[in-house]
Amino acid sequence: MPADSETTHTSPDEVVPTTGIQQEEVAPRRSTRVTSTSKSAAEEKSAKKADANADGNVEQDDNGAKKAKTTQSKKSSDDSTESLALGDTLPDIVLKNEKDEDVNVKGLEDDSAGVVLFLVAKADTPGCTTQACGFRDVYPNFEALKFKVFCLSADSPSAQTKWQTKNSLPYPLLSDPKRMFIAALTGSTAKTPRSHFIFVKGKLAEKKMPVKPVDSPRFALEFITALAKNGDAAGDAISSETVAVTDVPTDADTKTENVAEADVSGAAEI
Residue ranges under compositional bias (Basic and acidic residues) (predicted)? Predict the structure, then answer.
């Protein structure tokens, strides 16, 4: 028998080979390991895609990415439209006022030196009330300068009337539930940005968007006052004798300046 062969003698008649009986556990073949690793990686990648699709933040693939971007772009496009530029005239749109009466926007400036329109997202909400009461407090100054003031929102006339009565608002409110005039001014068909617009001689002369509720009345009055002092655009209706501006509220004077501005509605305030 060769020297390198091992045997176990259990009896004179039986010889059992021992080579290979106590072999160590054989490792999986390489192809099995590769398949297992690939499967784990694929499962992990699939899980990440599922999470990403749920969040809407990560692209699934090239086609999915293009589709997502197109949808987002279309939504943004649907929510916006062309807005009035400086120098444009008041549009021919008929709205209801807080008394449920028809008002043609084109004629808002009749018998006045100009018009101030301030926009709020929703009546009787904190930030909007701050802005509205600010215009209320300096309303006599606008009257002295022969400017009309209007509040514009998408609220119903009845909601506007309640808000007007509750806060003693001296100026008219315009109801624009279809956002026709709001969109013409702001360019947004879905939201009502906090803002104000000033028309002089029928043309848009100033727009502030966005603007803080406490600043809106002051900025509007300062702009009109500057026109009067400089003898610009407002015409003969404004004279230097009617320019005195008193008690214009500032951040320090307004008690409600720290009130949260999270106005409810499909509109998001800015």
Answer: 41-52
Mean pLDDT, to the nearest integer, of 182-205? Answer: 97
Q: Enter the tokens of residue 223.
A: 């702009």
Mean pLDDT throughout 234-240?
44
SS3 240: helix
Domain 94-242: which topology?
Glutaredoxin (3.40.30)
Mind listing the pLDDT tens digit for each residue in 149-175? 999 999 999 999 999 999 999 999 999
Pick the catalytic residue from 90, 116, 123, 128. Answer: 128
Tokens 């909007």 label which residue?
Answer: 128
Residues 6+ apart with CB under 8 A from 88: 203, 204
Using CB atoms within 10 A of its CB, is residue 2 exposed (0-12), middle (13-18) or buried (19+)? exposed
Strand partners, 97: 174
Residue ranges of the domains in the chain?
Answer: 94-242
Cis amide prior to 17 (ω within 30 degrees): no
Residue 196: strand pairing partners: 118, 208
Report pLDDT digits (tens) over 100-120: 999 999 999 999 999 999 999
Helix segments in the chain, DSSP class H: 30-55, 62-78, 126-137, 139-144, 157-167, 180-186, 216-230
> Do residues 92 and 181 lie in contact, with contact meaning Cβ atoms separated by under 8 Å?
no
